[in-house]
Amino acid sequence: MSSILDKINNKELINDEVIATDLLVSAKAAVRSYAVAITETASPEIHKTLKKQMDEAIDAHHKIATYMIEKEMYHAYDIKEQIDHDLKKADLALEMPEDNK
Fold this sequence. Notes:
Blueprint: H1 2-9, H2 16-40, H3 44-70, H4 79-95
Helix pairs in contact: 2-3
């Protein structure tokens, strides 16, 4: 328990994994947004531009996911391991003191 409080008190909660996860989620959201936008456009020029941007977002997602897998931050191929990892992060979040503003 003290190591968790030490991490909270030392603000070690913002780390590479948190940043990479945020980037991964953002890249995934971008892919979805571009996919929807592509289906809503009638202009071939805009369609081509959106497709290029979606391909770049897919590439970014792949690079971020690969980085996270290599650093054992993301267990895409082992669901049990990923669930255990997520549960540990949830426990840490639940143990954080509430911010009294």
